[in-house]
Design brief:
Elements lengths: L1 H28 L6 H4 L10 H11 L5 H10 L33 H36 L4 H15 L2 H18 L21 H5 L6 H7 L1 H27 L2 H8 L4 H22 L2 H6 L2 H7 L4 H10 L3 H29 L7
């Protein structure tokens, strides 16, 4: 076990180093940049000169060779001053716990992420938990009652959930629960946002319940639609995976042997089949870890939730390299951690699997 973990950690470090190089190279070699818009303006000469743009690039360190910029981003390059007294080094680096400052907001990237990570975690973690609690029993029941009317109904809805695009489902839920409910005189749900900015109007669910702006009740009601949409989409896929895995396990010889011994069907399913059927689902659920950090970009855009997904999209559109690089690198770290976590959980779910 210890030797396996050491070997996997070393492999993870190699993967992360290669990932950081790829992330930095792709962003810096991609067409465009923070000051390209200024260079292409038709009346640029009357606003910003080329010399001013060069000074701004020097201020951000964009005039240095890319390999030096990468080293400075990763570990800081203040140590270069000992080799070249004229070198203007940076004492900040990713390995020092500092991703630098945003090009656009002029704020530390860590502070910008701290202001949004809580919203993203609340949205994605709650939706994943709800989807898991519902999808596992549905998948098990659908497999045990294969080809029954209930199985056909569940299969139909799971296919619908897998096929429907998340942004379309989100927009339809806003039209129905926010707009049509209001026109029908029913308590309508908020169409988006994290919390109310002012006292809710009468006729809305917030107004009926008397939720104060920014209160726990106010935030919870605002999250009803995005959590519902996201969990239903996840639920459909997870239930389908669970059904397929359970059907495969139920055909195994040891399950037939357990039934031949006269064990109750509930005991056979819960004791003998369920643990082995959970292995594929463990892989899927553990890989939700990066998405809990990164959020669901489309859902956050549709419902206007100021989370990590919107931060990432805004950073891409404005060529804000420090924010984009931090987002992608942290996602890569969580991905390799999820891979290791899934391998460890395999041994918990199925005692036949050994890490050595």
């Amino acid at each position: 076990m210890t030797a396996y973990l050491i070997r996997r950690v070393l492999q993870m470090l190699v993967v992360l180093v290669l990932s950081s190089i790829t992330i930095y190279a792709l962003l810096n070699f991609a067409p465009g940049g923070p000051f390209d818009a200024l260079r292409t303006m038709s009346d640029r000469k009357s606003r910003v000169s080329e010399q001013q743009i060069d000074r701004m690039e020097a201020l951000l360190g964009l005039n240095k060779p890319i390999q030096m910029r990468y080293i400075g981003w990763l570990i800081g390059d203040d140590w270069m001053g000992s080799l070249n007294p004229e070198w203007e080094g940076d004492t900040r680096g990713v390995l020092r716990g500092d991703f630098g400052d945003s090009f656009q907001k002029k704020r530390p990237v860590i502070d910008m992420m701290k202001a949004r990570i809580g919203k993203t975690v609340a949205l994605t973690a709650l939706s994943a938990l709800l989807a898991m609690v519902v999808a596992i029993p549905i998948g098990i029941y659908s497999a045990v009652k294969q080809y029954s009317r209930t199985d056909y109904v569940m299969t139909f809805f799971t296919f619908m959930g897998v096929a429907i695009p998340s942004f379309w489902f989100g927009l339809m839920s806003i039209i129905v629960f926010a707009q049509l409910f209001q026109s029908w005189g029913l308590p309508s749900l908020p169409s988006g946002g994290w919390a109310s900015l002012r006292t809710p109007r009468e006729g809305t669910l917030l107004g009926v319940l008397g939720a104060e702006p920014g209160s726990f009740l106010d935030i919870s009601i605002h999250l009803l639609l995005p959590i519902g949409v996201l969990s239903l989409l996840q639920m459909a896929g997870w239930a389908r995976y669970m059904r397929t895995s359970m059907l495969e396990v139920l055909q195994q010889d040891y399950v037939r042997t357990a039934r031949a011994k006269g064990l109750a069907e509930r005991f056979v399913v819960a004791k003998h089949a369920l643990r082995n059927a959970l292995i594929p689902l463990v892989t899927i659920v553990t890989y939700e870890l990066p998405f809990i950090f990164g959020g669901t970009i489309l859902i956050e855009q549709v419902f206007g939730i100021p989370g990590m997904g919107l931060l990432y999209i805004d950073a891409l559109n404005s060529f804000d390299f420090p924010v984009t690089q931090a987002y992608l690198l942290i996602t890569a770290v969580l991905t390799v951690i999820a891979t290791l976590l899934s391998d460890i959980l395999y041994t918990v779910v199925d005692p036949r699997i050994r890490l050595n």
